[in-house]
Amino acid sequence: MAIPRAAKTQRRTRIQEEKEEQILEAALDVFSVSGFRGSTIDQIAEVAGMSKPNLLYYFRTKEAMHRALIDRVLFTWLEPLRAFNAQGNPESEIRGYIRRKLEMARDFPRESRLFANEVLQGAPHIEDELKGPLKELVDEKAAVIRAWAKAGKIVKCDPYHLIFSIWSTTQHYADFDVQVRAVLGQGQSGEGRFEDAARFLEQLFVDGLSVRTNQPAS
Amino acid sequence: MAIPRAAKTQRRTRIQEEKEEQILEAALDVFSVSGFRGSTIDQIAEVAGMSKPNLLYYFRTKEAMHRALIDRVLFTWLEPLRAFNAQGNPESEIRGYIRRKLEMARDFPRESRLFANEVLQGAPHIEDELKGPLKELVDEKAAVIRAWAKAGKIVKCDPYHLIFSIWSTTQHYADFDVQVRAVLGQGQSGEGRFEDAARFLEQLFVDGLSVRTNQPAS
DNA sequence: GGATAATTTGACCGACTGGTAAACATTACA
DNA sequence: TGTAATGTTTACCAGTCGGTCAAATTATCC
Fold this sequence. Notes:
The structure is a homodimer.
Chain A: H1 14-38, H2 41-48, H3 52-58, H4 62-82, H5 90-107, H6 109-120, H7 127-150, H8 159-175, H9 177-184, H10 192-209
Chain A binds a DNA duplex through helix 1 and helix 3.
């Protein structure tokens, strides 16, 4: 008799490892495009190349699949913000943060859209994560930024809205990819747009945040 | 015998006017939260306070409802960009654009989310609008910005990515509202966050785009 | 190789989906 | 006021939804 995966005390078998991986990969494909409500187990099963009951053997409900996916992706997703270093130089820290976030938008667009879909639809499944771990991390980094501003290393500004603006500008290239491509047209459709975006955003934020003092004329 | 609305040649009756309005209002509520696939006619019918077949009397399919909604909202949504004036002063034009976009995010968050959902899910219903009217409008305004840069009125930068960054930062407050609230916490949950955002964003973009020359020390 | 546990699937269920048919109710207008 | 057009609803349909079940198949270990 089959043992539902939650009940077992022993280690996961090789097959379990592989299949769960396969399923979550397919689930990411589907959920990231259609959101939770708009996705069906059948779609995921087809992408995963296995039967629906087989999926439900590894994850008892659609919700469990979604949950597992969110849990797995959330930690990685916050990595760039976590790497934000209080001891570092403000300009290079902000530059680095923008660059890392843009790289993630380029390399993991599905993950970005998964969260975007979820938050857009009212975050019914991740409210706790937003109000808990996420808020704490942002509070911590906001304090760092505020200290920099107080020390005159960057211009005085609201650190929360600064973080929001870095999130939104960078994730835009993953979440609104179709729109970006449509507006840029065929020519700029290669990966070059990420380099252009990086150049623009680094300039915007560095110049926009540096303290204005006597500078050589441009 | 009932005449499906598309077939009639005469003017719309008062009832048609009212009911279609009512339905689109409800449809906006539902589509903006769950996207096209995730929304059901039953949900819309319940919000609209009428029976499902009654909705289908006015709009023959779910798709027609969505289409009508998009068409109605798109024009309004592009208004701020259209108002962008080549003859104006660059700083005040950019400031004004940010302010207007933020006001729309505050006053019409459902409209913003409707588009966000649609684009996020690959824009299957509005691809033509993106590649056509939207691209043309952006191209036109990008040329204006490029001319400003060439004339030394603002710093040299990629006008497309500038527009993207204004879109993303402002719409963020509508589309990711739950997340913004969660991170800001209870205290900042009032409408004050829009004023804070406006202050931050205007500062960021104005300072980030102004040409660096000798300035008084801060 | 055989017993046992783990994995996979086809058939199925009740609820819901987008949409239809036709009867019924209401309105506009002569 | 009558009647034809317009508007509304109940009952329904075929297909899909998330999920179950039991039987069949495969891997594991002695």
